[in-house]
Write a structure and sequence with these properties.
It is a single chain. The protein has 199 residues and is mainly β. The protein has one domain. The protein is built from two helices and 19 strands. Strands 1, 2, 5, 7, 8, 12, 13, 16 and 19 form a nine-stranded mixed sheet that branches. The longest helix is centred in the first third of the chain and has 14 residues.
Length: 199
């Protein structure tokens, strides 16, 4: 199905649980030794926007979004509040040829690392930097739907914010009116999982 280039409202995504997911096969033999096979070279984000004590306005926004994207049918952008920025130390660019570069973010632990393609940058926050760490002094074009930068000179790094392309991982939305107060009804949202769309 289609993808909409709009961000899930922050009143819905803020407070969610977020994290990268891998798929690894672990085989343990009788001696207790094990072998591990990582099936995915790169992680996939998983999130859950289940909450308690949400307002009617927030719940109305969730219902409108869920109905509009028809559950799992359509993808959309979401801010991962745990990891939504790149800086000059980890904002990398991979040359694609023809003056094009893919925005990436590098994660490192000792000698191990993972380079993540950033496909949904928030264009208004992005700065392309030169070797001195200063904003580059030439014009460029950034596709905020793919994270591809077109520039006539060699950039060094980038900084800015980015979203993650996701979809709901359920087709049924379950909500509960959990309380009444002087300010109005209070709602609870049980588990509402989302997963990253790979590109």
């Amino acid at each position: 199905m289609s993808f909409i280039e709009q961000r899930l409202p922050e009143c819905i995504s803020f407070g969610a649980t977020f994290g990268p997911e891998y798929q690894t096969n672990v085989v343990v033999v009788n001696s207790g030794h094990e072998s591990r096979n990582s099936n995915w070279a790169k992680s996939r984000l998983v999130a859950n926007i289940g909450y308690r004590n949400k307002t009617k306005a927030d719940t109305d926004a969730l219902i409108a979004w869920f109905r509009s994207v028809k559950g799992r049918a359509h993808g959309f952008r979401m801010k991962d509040w745990s990891d939504y920025q790149a800086d000059a130390t980890n904002g990398e660019l991979i040359a694609l040829g023809n003056d094009e570069y893919q925005l990436c973010k590098r994660y490192a632990a000792g000698s191990l690392n993972e380079v993540r393609e950033i496909r949904k940058p928030v264009a208004s926050t992005v700065q392309i930097l030169d070797d001195d760490g200063d904003p580059i002094g030439v014009s460029y074009d950034l596709d905020s739907t793919t994270g591809i930068l077109t520039i006539g000179t060699v950039p060094s790094s980038w900084t800015g914010e980015f979203d993650v392309p996701v979809r709901f991982d359920v087709d049924k939305l379950e909500l509960e009116v959990s309380d009444r107060s002087a300010a109005g009804l209070v709602y609870s949202w049980p588990s509402i999982p989302l997963i990253e769309l790979r590109g």
